[in-house]
Fold Peptidase A1 domain-containing protein.
Amino acid sequence: MTMVVYPTSFHLATIICLMLLPLHISATEGFSVNLIRKNSSHAHVLPLRRLMELSAMEKTLTPQSPIYAYLGHYLMELSIGTPPFKIYGIADTGSDLTWTSCVPCNNCYKQRNPMFDPQKSTTYRNISCDSKLCHKLDTGVCSPQKRCNYTYAYASAAITRGVLAQETITLSSTKGKSVPLKGIVFGCGHNNTGGFNDHEMGIIGLGGGPVSLISQMGSSFGGKRFSQCLVPFHTDVSVSSKMSFGKGSKVSGKGVVSTPLVAKQDKTPYFVTLLGISVENTYLHFNGSSQNVEKGNMFLDSGTPPTILPTQLYDQVVAQVRSEVAMKPVTDDPDLGPQLCYRTKNNLRGPVLTAHFEGADVKLSPTQTFISPKDGVFCLGFTNTSSDGGVYGNFAQSNYLIGFDLDRQVVSFKPKDCTKHK
Ligand SMILES: *[C@@H]1O[C@H](CO)[C@@H](O)[C@H](O)[C@H]1NC(C)=O
Ligand SMILES: *[C@@H]1O[C@H](CO)[C@@H](O)[C@H](O)[C@H]1NC(C)=O
Ligand SMILES: *[C@@H]1O[C@H](CO)[C@@H](O)[C@H](O)[C@H]1NC(C)=O
Ligand SMILES: *[C@@H]1O[C@H](CO)[C@@H](O)[C@H](O)[C@H]1NC(C)=O
Ligand SMILES: *[C@@H]1O[C@H](CO)[C@@H](O)[C@H](O)[C@H]1NC(C)=O
Ligand SMILES: *[C@@H]1O[C@H](CO)[C@@H](O)[C@H](O)[C@H]1NC(C)=O
């Protein structure tokens, strides 16, 4: 039987092989790339959450409410192979494997752009299933030709299956120079299914596990760190977001707050500790019954749109927001499900929420709190889970320069208009 990636044990194995990759990078300076949002008129992707997260956090995370279906992901442009072949992949700090659809793609979602053909690249290398690289991903199995077949699944029920391989991946820097990364382990996906839209050509895994692009880059660009500045979803699609790697991604200056990253057995998610959330001046403790919270109760995920809170806290946040807003919530629109939504042409003017991370208070203005799933409606961009932990989603991350410093093990937040580069 082919391995299916549902059991809890699935993720445990990934942490066993923390070996270094043969990276050959010449550049020593940091660099930046642009993130493009997909054309939302084509979007029908449900928020993407890895199954692994589920096994780590809970097993019954509900599928997303349809209101998020028109919103979603930030696409990162990069090239793969020689000659370079351009792909657009979802920038996902919540997963590790970078993969793209490869020819032949037998059971794949429809894509408008041509797919990567490994036969046409002179730098493509299959990874043998005897190789240690194959076991970096615990779902690697041997094909009859000794290829390393992988399966990688996401909480949205999306799955990619294919062959683990190595390639040159080229990132274009915002300074104009391109940055080739040689021998990057990636998934050549020959069977990819799930709620992807036809602009998306795969996923760029930016998590903390051994196979992620971040781990493979290591300290090559002057420090193991990266930063992102995501524009809010209502911004014109031609305005790109920015992601920086290495030296140039340091987040410093006035207004910066930082919180420790919490190391757990699951190396993929960037765990932080959320003590509570304020709605204006009302402080709601994460753990209603006590000041004690478990360290690392949340993780930051650029691939999940809403912020997901344990029901106990979520219910309190909803109740408090309702009491602060003078308008009546929408109750007669079946499209909106149980979300807290208001009928208003422009976004609400308040309340201001504050996410109290350990050592870092992060203010959320209505832009980061309410999202518009359809004209004339704004909804609280939060949802709930029966788990003890939660996810800090990409709506809340917008208009903050967020730095992940993996050498110092801290995440920093600096308020910033991400539509204005520099
Ligand atoms: C989005 O795609 C549609 C259909 O291809 C196109 O008509 C529209 O101009 C695009 N919008 C933007 C902002 O690119
Ligand atoms: C593709 O994977 C699905 C499971 O995700 C499997 O049921 C199907 O048989 C596979 N198809 C091909 C052509 O390999
Ligand atoms: C990689 O493996 C596939 C399938 O076994 C094979 O067709 C292809 O020729 C191999 N490519 C290289 C460069 O070895
Ligand atoms: C390995 O992957 C290839 C290409 O996706 C597929 O044709 C083959 O059936 C797979 N073999 C095994 C044993 O999973
Ligand atoms: C909440 O606090 C109680 C009492 O200190 C503790 O036992 C429990 O683990 C905490 N729960 C969470 C989710 O942090
Ligand atoms: C989410 O919260 C609602 C009430 O606010 C509750 O009925 C539902 O069971 C919760 N869902 C989960 C997955 O905890």
Remarks:
- Residues 1-30, 37-71 have pLDDT under 50 and may be disordered.
- Residues 3-248 form a domain with the Cathepsin D, subunit A; domain 1 fold (CATH 2.40.70.10).
- The chain has two domains: 3-248, 250-415.
